[in-house]
Specification:
23 strands, globular, 341 residues, alpha+beta, 4-stranded antiparallel β-sheet, 17% helix
Length: 341
Amino acid sequence: MGLRHAWIAALLLMVPAALAAHPPYSLVVDPAGNAYFSDLEAVWKLAPDGRLSLFRPAVAGKHVHELAAANGAIEGEQNEYDPATQTHRGAIWRRTLDGRETWVLAPTTTAPKGMGVPRDRAGNRYVAHWVDSRDRRTMLFRRSTDGRVALLYGPADEAARFSEALASSVGGMVFPADGSAILADGRALRRADAAGRVATIYEGPKEAALRGLALASDGRILAADSGRRAVFAVSLSGESDQVYASPPGWIATAAAQVRGKLLVLEANADPYDYVRRMRVVEAVSGGRRVVAEPWKGATKPTVKMEDRRRRGAAGLALPAAAAAIAAAAAVLAMARRRRAG
């Protein structure tokens, strides 16, 4: 193994496996039709006209997995790991659409129990955690607006002694109009009704790994399944239909319906590609169309085909002329160097 490859291998060994396997799983939409997503560190805004802009700058080492639209703002969790002390610090930020940011929960190693990003229509917050990294029984907490915390699902004895550090959940959540809350929990969708009673409404095969959720216009739940690399529409009675499949090399982690279009957030299947981490595609007949690639930076509005036709040959003349001038200049410079030699 050469020096360069040995250095790369050593670098990869220093990356925690959990970090590589835990991509962002939120694609949220504001009332104007703008979609927001994280590339793990930065948060991006995709406008209805196709323009991609930076909404929240990246902070190195501080990761954002979960987002929520909240009354004229976007809220998100932020977590970081300190290898020196082997501790996690969690936080929840709130950023208005004009860029003003405040802390809902300032960075801390001991977050209040039940403090999460998802909020229902009454303002109650939710968070779901495993008991620990080995015991993956899920505990679903609800924190009411007056600070009371209720365990809706999971082992009560473990929940009583559980100490919360991170504000992100094991999976996404949505809140249908009937007042219920639905959680993606491994291969299952769990529904907590308004009274707090929890039932499993859907369970996928053993390879399923449900992540981001969204409400579809027909009342079904859009569930991104990272295990099967697809998006499913699931009814409240448990029937499911596959509505999108990710191509080789990409994994669906979230979905959203925006003005009749199905947008899908995808993670690179190579966990160590730290450039092309996340992208957004629009599901179209027979496949997909890539609409956001944040590693390329902000973009201009999408030019419609009829606008291109309207420009005609005149619109193409300037770039072609510029290329011809550049080529002629290069030939002239080469000729001068040969004469000089």
